[in-house]
Amino acid sequence: MARLSSHVIALFIVVALVCAFVPVFSVEEAEAKSLWNTCLVKITPKCALNIIYVVFGNGTLIESCCYDLVQEGKVCHDNLIKYIADRPSLIGRKAQYLKKRDDVWNHCVSISKTA
């Protein structure tokens, strides 16, 4: 239970950090706010955190999160991961993260089609 709580807290910290950096990006602030409001409600915090761990770390993708991700949609997935990857501390490995983002998406779509 404590582990789940720490994951949820970590997710909210990541979201807060990303939101803090949104004005730096090329997307207009109002558009970014709309994106966050529409995208983050489509995926559970557990799955969002799992996908972040897979793309930016060495996490193992939970298969049930693939269904959430596909329901969230490619535009939301692409933009949310791009916002995180554009952080100055991560920018040096942005291409690697964007490739992992695409690999996760393709894997999840293939799983969702077979279900």
UniProtKB/TrEMBL annotation:
Transmembrane segments: none annotated. Residues 1-20 form the signal peptide. Keywords: Signal. The keyword Transferase does not apply. Residues 38-109 form the Prolamin-like domain. It holds the Pfam family Prolamin_like. This is Bifunctional inhibitor/lipid-transfer protein/seed storage 2S albumin superfamily protein. It comes from Arabidopsis thaliana. The lineage of its organism: Eukaryota, Viridiplantae, Streptophyta, Embryophyta, Tracheophyta.
